[in-house]
Design goal:
Low-confidence stretches: none
Structural class: alpha/beta
Strand content: 15-25%
Helix content: 25-40%
Number of helices: 13
Shape: elongated
Number of domains: 2
Radius of gyration: 26 Å
């Protein structure tokens, strides 16, 4: 079985394109690494994947369809590098098929082949038309026969299946994403993966002040997201002691903003340790009290790290729709005890000022609380396809 994977944005990278192409090929190899006999080989703005015929197409379809950088892909048939062989194969396969119009589109990677792309289109089109009686439509065909002429063989296909697009994971550096058990933050992490980032996930929990439900949820979310980025680190960070200190010493309306400022400080320290170049949050402007513009500014001032907010201009319906598409929605909507809901005041501040927040923080030993949280961090690693040593 042959698969042709095509890319789009990578093709615009000029002299850096070989780096992106090789990264994409590596990720395809990783995504299929548990399937025996798979080979992956770039060729002429395409990547060819050969899989033994006994491998279920459904498995290959799912795996390739989750690799960022793949714009679209096809299950391809193979014939020798001979025009007559291609004509016979195409005519035989389409004879008796039901379609109202068609066209042939050829890409000739091997420029030494004795027919150019236009000639191949016409020759194959005439053979198919003679075998089926179906008309050619170059503008809006019901079926397109895609032909790839390589040096040693010809590949052809009748469909283009959508890939996720974007850039290969690992081509744009590493970031650290704050992961709650909710809908938004997994989508934010996924969107950064699509831009080529390797995403380290960081979850703040209040266990044992609360149960382990968010810990369990984020582990499951990490497994789902790992199907997209193939390797993931999940950091579980104890946050209850910070919250207890804030509740004991600070004004109630400022608690949520203070919680978030501590999260940013702790996340910045973790990002430095893991060589992550930026922090990622699932914030959407105005969605909750901590995400008003005033509060986002004050929270962001707690860190010198670059903070990326890929969902900031999206509404809840848009975010929810994307969560459903990527497979995180069902897990995200399970009931849990989120640490952000612990000790939340009835009327949280929606426009906290820097002065009042910094004044409240003078009652706290900020460095000691950050250091204690960092000492309690637990790390888990996930891989896809899963290894025997991966978390169950």
């Amino acid at each position: 079985m042959n698969v042709i994977a095509r890319y789009h944005e990578i093709a615009l990278k000029g002299r850096n394109r070989p780096f992106f192409v090789e990264k994409l090929a590596d990720n395809l190899r990783q995504a299929l690494s548990d399937l025996p006999g798979v080979t992956v080989q770039p060729f002429s703005s395409r990547i060819g994947v050969h899989v033994p015929d006994e491998t279920p197409w459904e498995t290959v379809h799912e795996r390739v369809g989750r690799v960022f950088g793949v714009a679209n892909f096809s299950r391809a048939r193979e014939v020798p590098a001979d025009l007559e062989a291609l004509k016979r194969a195409a005519a035989t396969e389409l004879r008796g098929a039901s379609f109202a119009s068609f066209r042939v589109t050829t890409r000739r990677a091997d420029k030494t082949f004795p027919f150019n792309s236009g000639q191949i289109d016409r020759e194959i089109g005439a053979a198919v038309q003679a075998a089926t009686g179906v008309r050619v439509d170059l503008e809006e065909p019901e079926l397109t026969l895609w032909v790839e002429v390589l040096r040693d063989r010809i590949l052809y296909s009748f469909e283009r299946l959508p890939g996720p697009g974007g850039f290969p994971v690992g081509s744009s550096g590493r970031v650290l994403a704050l992961l709650s058990g909710g809908i938004d933050s997994p989508v934010a992490a996924w969107r950064m993966m699509k831009r080529g980032c390797r995403v380290v996930l960081a979850h703040f929990h209040a266990f044992p002040l609360q149960d382990r439900s968010t810990i369990d949820k984020t582990r499951e979310l990490a497994r789902i997201l790992t199907r997209w980025q193939l390797r993931t680190r999940l950091l579980q960070i104890p946050f209850g002691p910070v919250q207890q200190a804030v509740v004991a010493a600070c004004p109630a309306p400022l608690r949520v903003v203070l919680y978030r400022r501590f999260m940013m400080r702790i996340a910045e320290a973790l990002a430095r340790r893991r060589r992550a170049r930026a922090l990622v949050t699932g914030e959407s402007l105005g969605q909750v009290a901590s995400q008003t513009l005033d509060n986002m500014v004050v929270i962001g001032e707690a860190t010198r790290a670059t903070v990326l907010r890929p969902l900031v201009g999206m509404d809840k319906e848009e975010i929810t729709a994307q969560a459903r598409r990527i497979g995180t929605f069902e897990v995200s909507t399970r009931p849990d005890q989120d640490c952000c809901q612990l000790f939340v005041p009835r009327h949280p501040a929606t426009a906290a000022s820097r002065e009042e927040v910094e004044r409240a923080e003078t009652a706290l030993d900020v460095p000691a609380l950050v250091a204690a949280a960092l000492e309690g961090v637990a790390e888990e690693r996930f891989e896809f396809p899963p290894l025997a040593s991966s978390p169950p």
